[in-house]
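Re: the multi-chain job from yesterday

Posting the exact lines I submitted so nobody has to dig through the queue logs.
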Amino acid sequence: MPSSPAQAVDLKDKLSLFSEHWSPKVIARMNDYEIKVVKLDGEFVWHSHQDTDEMFLVLSGELEIQLRDQTVTVGPGQLYVVPRGVEHRPTASSEVHAVIIEPAGVVNTGDAGGALTAAYDDSLA
Amino acid sequence: MPSSPAQAVDLKDKLSLFSEHWSPKVIARMNDYEIKVVKLDGEFVWHSHQDTDEMFLVLSGELEIQLRDQTVTVGPGQLYVVPRGVEHRPTASSEVHAVIIEPAGVVNTGDAGGALTAAYDDSLA
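And the result, structure tokens for all chains:
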């Protein structure tokens, strides 16, 4: 049994603890998956994840997930799973708060790398 | 490329399509995991899942997840991951709408079975 009481994780509380964009923060774990919160604003880089799907659940704002042949709009209370290997570019014309769930170790920029690659941060877990 | 346009999954829309309690509906998949919505009301059965953690994200209402030594209250915008093997009993004094994420094939009553065991339903996926 845990020494400290188990308690729920509040998404808004976790989001209030940071302000930077494109920097997912691990807030909980489920098996070998990580549950992250992230703030998005502007255009990300085109990238893909060769080994995994990636789930986006939007809490506030409107996320445009550009695919090569179409754009998926994801609003509050909506989710979209980007299939493995599919090139995508998240874009937000104003700030979006979202939950991302994916296997532990997935890097935000996937196969693209570059300046927007976020350091692993599980300080809020 | 898919023949039909990719689109986001709206949680409220999916929840509007059924009324029964304790009957999770698969609405999306991520790798070998399933994303489900469920309506909960009343007391479930004590059970555990020996092989997996189980994530509950509450959308509306207040979910009490009873553990043997404490109770975790999960309100709207909050989540809790029940660790594998830990006995738990979800309880809702009024209707709760929630998202459950767990590996495909997990049965809602885990090791307990019984009358509340739900049939697998991915008709909303």
